[in-house]
Write a structure and sequence with these properties.
alpha+beta; 6 strands; 38% strand; globular
């Protein structure tokens, strides 16, 4: 069978297209089809919770508010109702109001659960104030839950709830 220039060109184009598709799929598949494990997402969110508390300890309300989605609504442990992003940091300056006391905290991770691209963190935090002699003056425990979602490279809190919890010696 005699090949025509058109047939040779058509076969060459088909081969090039096939090779191009195969190579582009091989190059893009790991990026496009990359699946991040739930454990990785949960670890990332727990790191965000630790950053949250570092901001609280440092009284950095500007950095703290960057952790919250613009449409956030939550049920904080302070006040009588829900709060949006604009009112979420009002409790932080109060922690540092007495300049003779130093604020610190301890976190107790209870559970972190990823469901697709949404991660919920459940934990308790001891808020501790010590005097200049490093003697504990006050300790309070609060239960927290935060729901996080990643937007691009940024994790943001969509919602949450906090409530006081009795200390073990109070139960």
């Amino acid at each position: 069978m005699k090949s025509t220039p058109f047939a040779v060109s058509a076969i060459a184009c088909l081969i090039l297209i096939s090779l191009s598709c195969c190579n582009s799929n091989k190059e893009s598949s790991p990026v496009q089809n990359a699946v991040v494990s739930n454990e990785t997402l949960e670890d990332e969110v727990w790191q965000m919770e630790e950053l949250y508390w570092k901001n609280v300890k440092d009284a950095d309300t500007v950095a703290y508010k960057k952790l919250w989605h613009e449409s956030f609504i939550g049920y904080p442990s302070f006040g009588d109702g829900t709060a949006n992003k604009s009112g979420i940091a009002v409790w932080i300056p109060e922690l540092h109001a007495d300049k003779d006391l130093t604020f610190s905290y301890t976190l107790y991770k209870k559970d972190v659960n990823a469901i697709e691209d949404v991660v919920m963190a459940f934990y308790e935090a001891d808020e501790v104030w010590t005097n200049q002699k490093n003697e504990e003056v006050r300790r309070e425990r609060t239960k927290f839950t935060h729901t996080w979602k990643k937007f691009g490279d940024t994790w943001l809190i969509l919602g949450g709830m906090a409530a006081p919890k009795k200390m073990p010696e109070q139960e």
